[in-house]
Amino acid sequence: MKTQKLILPVAALLVLVILGVTVARSTVEDWRKYQEQYAELSMAKGGAAGALQPIEVKQDRLLGFGDDRIDRCRSCHVAVDDPRFVDGKEPLKTHPSIAPHTFNLLGCTVCHEGDGRATTADLAHGKDKFWVEPLLTGQFIEASCARCHPAPYPAEAKHLRRGRELFEHNPCVGCHLVQGLSRGTLGIELTDVGLKRDVEFFRKKLTKPLFDVASTVMPRLKLSEQDKDDLATFLKSLKGRVLAEDPMSYRARLKAFDNAQPPEVEVAVEIGKKEVESRGCVMCHRLGDKDGERAPDLSFLGQIREPAYVEAHLAEPRQHAPDSIMPAFWMSPSERKAVAAYLTSLQGFVKPATPAEQYKLMCIRCHGEKGDGNGPVAESLLPRPRVFTNARFFNWLPDQRAYNAIRNGVPGTAMPAFGRILGDEDAKAMFAWIRATFAPQKEPIPPRTVPDRNPVAYGPDSVQRGRRIFQERCYGCHGRIGNGKGPNAPEMLPRPRNLTNHNFFTPLPDTRLFESITYGVVGTGMPPWDVFPDDQRWDLVNYVRSLSSSGPAASERRK
Questions:
Q1: Among 43, 262, 355, 444, which residue's beta carbon has the most beta carbons within 10 A?
Q2: Closest CA relative to residue 401, chosen from 361, 368, 377, 435
Q3: What CATH number is given to the structural domain containing 183?
């Protein structure tokens, strides 16, 4: 009973304490202090207008900028429209003119972002780690111009304009989708990325693409610090529909963009050269004295590729190498022909006299100076370049196969046919030099027994049996769909083979696949699977044929 009698007075006391603390805190809040200072300084500057303003939270309700906004920024920044405070210190400082806009209609967060409802400096400036719109300062404020002003943007927003130009003339436009601007399919959509990420994220991503996603294929672009700032400004501006554009007009513009066709051009070398220069190819490839160090050298492409190959590659890079990270650019057939004409006119390779010098010009870019498969473009290529220092693999690899790879290239990969510029004798000399330099120890390997043909007919029953075995034993490395991206794959070098690679598997005989399954691949993560009966291994061969669309397996041309 006594306890019950105490509950009411204790509760009342707690309420009084809370009220007291609230009142006390309200008298020491920063906005109150700044308004009092403003009143004193206004009197000193010879005017009573500021001194007569009530001390209160000042609130602007902003309409017409998407969702209704509440700005309380001028609770601290009370002098933004007072010309007497041009030389003042923040927050009691005159804001540069925003004419023809007014603060009552435009507010602060429409341009500066931050949390307009907050009344403490840190929260108002968006320093809460969960707030996605931290305060924009300096040139990054220009990102907000695009909220109302469509491209080409006001002339004063020079950094925003420069950022869009960088986006359009770098690989960004080929990889990423921005509705109404670009048609990329390789990277994430960026149409409204400015609503989800802050400027600091964009700068980090442009500096080190791997900082947040270790598996990204985004190249590290060679940008100056100012270029990174300008591009980050543009990316921050991407927030979907421009508010000055009504929804119907917006949808009509997007539809027209989606239905547009790329322009036809004259098929000429000079036209192709302009196309290559305008699309930022050198941000990844090497061409002359410019080198993005992310993709193969184009300086002598005409000596190793035919125009038809280049045209087809521009139309769909993954038809030649299914793991290629090159985007399929929006180009007309005549544009592709013009680019192919220009690139295949490049014949800048002059063959050095020795294999060592030839290796420096032709091979280091992918295979590395030390033959370790870590050349400057290696991380962009799947499958990765062969590691010549893998002594166990080279001890097992038949010389003829290695020589054929140099001479004829490897279908389904970035390895071209260097025999076209080396010739047979120099190709043999190159392989001999590679083996002697990087893997000189060659030991005999035990003899292998491999049938001369596939005795199991390719058909639905065999493929289904092979599929069951594959899903039980092979998916951990090769993935459920056979694309080489199983859960164990990131921990393995070389990576598991992409079994859907049609170009790679089509020329291989069934006996080669059977040998790899039976004995494994020495020097890689592929173990021998000789525990399975022969007929089950042949079923696996047929299933791999189905994955790569390279059947039928039992044909006479592929024994």
A1: 355
A2: 435
A3: 1.10.760.10
Contact indicator for 302, 343 with CB cutoff of 8 Å: yes
Q: What is the structure's pLDDT at 559? A: 45
Tell me how far apart the alpha carbons of residues 439 and 433 are, in angstroms, rounded to a whole number: 10
Domain end: 386, 406, 438, which one? 438
Q: pTM (2 decimals)?
A: 0.80
Report the C-alpha gap between 179 and 231 in whole angstroms.
18
Q: Does the residue 532 lie in any domain?
A: yes
- DSSP-assigned beta bridge partners for residue 62: 69
Pair 280, 309 in one domain = yes
Is the previous residue joined to 552 through a cis bond, with omega within 30 degrees of 0?
Answer: yes
CA dist 535 and 550 (Å) reads 19
Residues 211 and 235 in one domain: yes
The answer to whether the Cα torsion of 143, 206, 324, 352 is positive or negative is positive
Q: Is 363 helix (H, G, I), strand (E, B) or coil?
A: coil
pLDDT confidence of residue 553: 41
> Hey, what's the torsion of the CAs at 28, 34, 35, 41, to 10 degrees?
130
Alpha-carbon span 346 to 366, nearest angstrom = 20
Q: Do 154 and 255 lie in a common domain?
A: yes
Count of domains forming the chain: 5
The sign of the dihedral angle between the CA atoms of 387, 388, 389, 393 is positive
Residues 484 and 425 in one domain: no
Q: Give me the average pLDDT of each 10-residue run along the chain (559 residues).
A: 65 71 62 91 75 84 79 93 91 90 87 91 88 90 92 94 93 91 92 94 93 81 93 96 88 95 96 92 90 91 95 93 89 97 93 94 94 91 90 85 93 94 92 91 82 94 97 96 93 92 94 96 92 96 94 49
Question: In this structure, is residue 132 part of a structural domain?
Answer: no
In this structure, are residues 478 and 497 in contact, taking their beta carbons and an 8 Å threshold? yes
What is the model's pLDDT at position 8?
72
Q: Are 282 and 255 members of one domain? A: no
Q: Per residue in 359-372, is it b (16+ CB within 10 Å) or e — as a string?
A: bebbbebbbbeebe
Q: Which residues form the domain of 415?
A: 355-438
> For 221-249, b where at least 16 C-beta lie within 10 A, e where not — what string?
bebeeebbbbbbbbbbbbbbbbbeeeeee
| Any domain includes 552 | no
Instruction: Among 241, 259, 277, identify where a domain stops.
Output: 259
Q: How far is CA 169 from the centre of its chain?
A: 16
The single residue listed with the structure tokens 């306890």 is 3
Residues 366 and 428 in one domain: yes
329: left (phi over 0), alpha (psi -120 to 50) or beta: beta
223 and 153, same domain (yes or no): yes
β-strand 182-183 against 290-291: which pairing, if any? Answer: unpaired
